[in-house]
Amino acid sequence: MLAIAPYYCGATQTWVFDDPNAGLEREPFVAGVPAMIDHLVRDIPNARDGFRMIFSAVPFPGYQQEAVREYAESGGAWYRTVEPPLRGWLCPALFRYFDRAPERLYVRSEPLG
Length: 113
Fold this sequence. Notes:
By secondary structure, this protein is mainly β. Helix content is 7%, strand content 45%. The strands form two sheets. It has a six-stranded antiparallel sheet, covered by helices on one side. A three-stranded antiparallel sheet has the order 2-3-4, with no helix packed on it.
């Protein structure tokens, strides 16, 4: 399992995250993924100030959402969820965490602290 701590950036008007170990700073989520995050954090108070996102290519206890890879495009990959039916593109930063785009991603969000 891997973890990042996304937060909402007013300057870019989207969710971003920092991961110095992966060489990423204010890495934005784009192309449908912000709506996926909005759904994922709907029950976390003040989620825009930051939350923990745990993710894995294999199911783990307590995961909230499963996203299925559709196809590769522009160096990243499109994923879709079933419920709710959402679709988003994960950029090439995905490959800082995985050697190849996983067939499925399993995600859980939780408050920081």
